[in-house]
Amino acid sequence: MAKAGVIGLDIGTTRVRAAEVVFGGGGRGVNAQPTLVRYGEAPLPPGAVRDGEVADQATVSGTIRQLWAEARFPSKDVNIGVGNQRVVVRELDLPWMPPSQVRASLPFQVQELLPMSTDEAVLDYYATGETDGPNGRMLQGMLVAATRDTVNANVMAVETAGLRPQLVDLNPFALMRSVVRGDLAQRTVGVVDIGARVTQVIISAHGAPQFVRMLPSGGQNVTEAVAGALQVSGVDAENIKREVGVGFAVAPELMPAAEAVNSVVRPLIEAIRNTFVYYAGNHPGAGIDVVVLTGGGSHLPGLGQYLSSASRLAVTIGDPLSTLKVAKSAHPERLTAQSSLLALPLGLAFGLAA
Question: What is the pTM (predicted TM-score) of this model?
């Protein structure tokens, strides 16, 4: 009997995507080579998911059921993620304690650090190391706090679709796990996922997360800016956006579109650059080696070059399939062109608690 895989389910603004991964003897290690055995996606109508959070539970649940029926995923157990402006991620050192006690202690240690009550939050802690100093043995890591409403909205949509969430993960951590593998696991990497409405930035050093930031802008914001400037439909605006790109000479009649693209892309790139500058300023001698782009918005022509010029860093499009085997059942011929879009569902499948 074939070995059961782990399924990562990404509920995005415009699509739901799911990937089933089978892990061999190497497990989930950064140098292992798991196998993608199944992948599927289904479109979501506008407004079903807003700012990274399920807004129309019935529609999202119906779309997930449709995806499961069409892609024939063999299990109803899934790992899902959260990631938007209502998720707080901060570096935090804690007095050392056994891992089993860390989560239980968080409500009593972090209330003053959060813009919400701990009663309204789902809390977690991602330990990245330990130190011994004047204050004794300390844990180094990252506090994750998500509003309970955000988590519940996604969980309920999945459960209503008849699936069983096994793990609710932080999207940036999932992105890091799928992209920062092989050679990249030995470097300091800035992963930038440009989604439809949310851009997620995670900085990883030697395979461990160091800094996370969520930015409330993405590819759909660019499309809407073009649609408004030219008074065209969203479909036409999407095509014009990709024709215009960033930093290219355009015909006079497309100048309003180019200005609309720049009106969104320029502040987004500046915010990403400022994130890198902030990280470098707080981690002397630990500069970023390379930036890896994922997400649909990363494919806007010229955007990678623009970010490279603004940040003075090497920028590349992520290929999470490069360190995986792809079974024929996953139809590899269909996935090559959209490899970077698979980063999140693949990373969710890599979830450690699965």
Answer: 0.90
